[in-house]
Amino acid sequence: MPADPHEPSSSSRSPLFGVLPWPERTAIAGALRTETVGGMVLLAAAVIALVWANSPLFGAYEAVRDFHFGIPALGLDLSVQHWAADGLLAIFFLVAGIELKRELVVGELRTPATAVLPVVAAICGMAIPAAVYLTIVSAGGGSPGGWAVPMATDIAFALAVLAVISTHLPAALRAFLLTLAVVDDLGAILVIAVFFTADLNLWALAAAFTGLAVFYLLQRFRVRGWWWYVPLGLAIWGLMYNSGVHATVAGVAMGLILRTQRDPARGHRPAETASPGERTAHLLRPVSAGIAVPLFALFAAGVALSGPALGAVFTQAEPLGVVLGLVLGKTVGVFAGTYLTARFTRARLNPDLAWADILALAVLAGIGFTVALLIGELSFTDPTTTEHIKAAVLVGSLIAAALAALLVRRRNTIYRRLYEEENLDADNDGIPDIYQRGPVAGTDGTVDRAGGQHT
After folding, report:
1. Strand, coil or helix: what is 222?
2. What distance in Å separates the CA atoms of residue 27 and residue 24, rounded to the nearest whole number?
3. DSSP secondary structure of 382-415
4. What confidence tens digit (pLDDT) does each residue in 283-294 have?
5. How far is CA 453 from the centre of its chain?
6. Helices marked H in 289-382 — which ranges?
7. What digits encode the pLDDT tens for the residues 394-414?
8. Radius of gyration (C-alpha) of the chain in whole angstroms
9. Which CATH superfamily is domain 34-66+79-196+246-262+275-423 in?
10. How crowded is residue 71: how many other Cβ atoms within 10 Å of its Cβ?
11. The whole model's pTM is what?
12. Strand 68-71 with 76-79, pairing
């Protein structure tokens, strides 16, 4: 049967993990820088929590973590730990919602051709770790309640590992990791909303959705001014918390509502220099990465690492399922999802890369620190089991980080060469020379100057 003349041949297809289109690379660069710095702060907070919790000052750590404050009349008398998990992480998920909206509207998820790879990889990277966990606990007679713990990827922690080992991982691989983590975050918030919601207060939930509708209308009619959105956002968050749905769902919902496309000039109104989503993300991403997530880690990662606790990680079914889910399940899921997608879409891998590079990225995705700790707290009510699950998250993430560091460092000479080629700007015009060869990239990203990541 003759080939369809309108179907591009495999030789004409752009390489998988090739050079990113210039608009996409520019948009992602700032997010990656902030997440990398935030990841370093996150690592420091986790270390402080572990040292503090395993020192003679553990009593002070517990006193601070369990101290309650708030407004009891509004149902908001929470401990410091719960304020961090339900309040500060709502900022993290708000930024994640904005990033997901941007990916859906103008990024890699805007078309099926570009969305299929990270979406399939993320879904496989969530399903297989859950399956590994359920297999382990089924064989060991444990509780299936923690099946969702090893599902998520912590992008900040992963980027911090790359920064610590001083790697030059190509921008396309970093962008893929970021998109993968964004889809992971969406999966995690759906799991939290569906499976960890109990004792619904329908009146509070209805009021929260009414607030979200007002939020949407304010965006729809281009109403500006933080004095509209901040009080409304806090009210939506408080109502969502009191409804029984985890309060972080409010953050994702508002992030998805915010516009991420700029309005053109209309009449006497000039064109927008930044969309509401861009402005909000610019303001809140440093707060999320540098304050919210590290503070959550400070009060969630304080696990007593005694001999019996560490022994339980490898002898009890639930924590062992978490460790193997992160280290083995994530690796197999992300790599298999990427490889099979490439095979079925007939995409060819960037000739400068090898499947070993994708394997390293899949291992790196096994770092599931922040969201894994959050889901671990929600999954179990027994304090001892919760502590063991937290220890398993730490151990699994550290193993994944160490293995990924070894795999990435082996190829860093190649990464350094690609990095230098991607960033060479001989004419000092602010645009790397690789983007000035061939057709000019359109704002929609469908055509790029050096083989963008399209399948």
Report:
1. coil
2. 5
3. -HHHHHHHHHHHHHHHHHHHHHHHHHHHHTHHHH
4. 999 999 889 999
5. 20
6. 293-300, 307-315, 317-324, 330-344, 355-364, 369-379
7. 999 999 999 999 998 888 888
8. 22
9. Na+/H+ antiporter like domain (1.20.1530.10)
10. 10
11. 0.83
12. antiparallel
